[in-house]
Amino acid sequence: MILVTGGAGFIGANFILDWLRNGGDAVVNLDKLTYAGNAENLAALEGDSRYRFVCGDICDPALLQHLLAELQPQAIVHFAAESHVDRSIFGPGEFIRTNIEGTFTLLETARAHWGTLSATGREQFRFLHVSTDEVYGSLAPEDPPFTETTPYQPNSPYSASKASSDHLVRAYHHTYGLPTVTTNCSNNYGPYQFPEKLIPLVISNALAGKPLPIYGDGMNVRDWLYVGDHCAAIRSVLAGGRLGETYNIGGWNEMPNLTIVRTICTLLDELRPDAAGPHERLINFVKDRPGHDRRYAIDARKIERELGWRPAETFATGIAKTVRWYLDHAEWVAHIQSGAYREWVDKNYGQRQ
Q1: Which of 133, 196, 229, 254 is catalytic?
Q2: Residue 308 lies inside a defined structural domain of this protein
Q3: Is 158 a residue of the active site?
Q4: Contact 232/251 with Cβ under 8 angstroms?
Q5: Pick the catalytic residue: 51, 136, 158, 296?
Q6: How many domains does the chain divide into?
Q7: What is the torsion angle, in degrees rounded to the nearest 10, for the CA atoms of residue 166, residue 172, residue 177 and residue 180?
Q8: Is 133 a catalytic residue?
Q9: What is the per-residue pLDDT across 73-119, written as a single tens digit (0 to 9) for each?
């Protein structure tokens, strides 16, 4: 079996569903269920003997020691993280605690557990750390995409905390021999994404006839990766990635935020037309985020060359699937958009009008 941290979040939940759907071993999901962790994401696994949920914190060494001793997992897949740049600007403390201290606690516990295994168990064990392209900083329009050797230049508390966790994972491999692999992915989108992120926020606001907030001039460029493709890439890295290595995972879909929003509006005009007019009328440019990185782009040739992975979805196919999923799961969206979520949106976007 494998232990997944943060498996009730957006990418973690998609990974667990994908893993079991593709015949993977049993999964134990350790998640604290903060605002972005939602057990409802995994409701389809209720009654499935291959899945177990444990509510807990990766900063709790006693809990981690108990779980590893009890479960004897063959791998740890580490998703658990605070992940929203805007929230890190308002309150960086939780990002330092979860992303740095939590990863350190997990590494220490994993190292102690790994040391108790048989020679075969030690050889088979894996610690896969899921990270972000934001650790590399910002690219100019003419710069080549990020590679695995691009120097780190994080520009937000979020990306700095993830860069720190990446360095810890690297150090535990080179110092202690812990069999680690790190993945740095581009912007994910797809089902179950918490609606503070751009794509689900735009979909939900457009359906409600609310303004579609776009930072600055809307020309910040991101590489967009459909979450199902990301899950497939992680399975490939877990199965065949070289120990101590980093693999960049991207969608080969560089696009400005404004183009993303307009694409969603066009899809909604077709699938859910609004009597008041085209959804693009709702676009609202707001004050830019402090320190907003201008461009990210991933060079994903290493994972293709070594492991044979390439994304199956184009942006056109992936965004169409995503919009349809949100239209078909209005109840899930309604449950997510609690009073606390509405307060956050007002806090973050209200002052930018």
Answers
A1: 133
A2: yes
A3: yes
A4: no
A5: 158
A6: 1
A7: -30
A8: yes
A9: 999 999 999 876 778 788 899 999 999 999 999 999 999 999 999 99
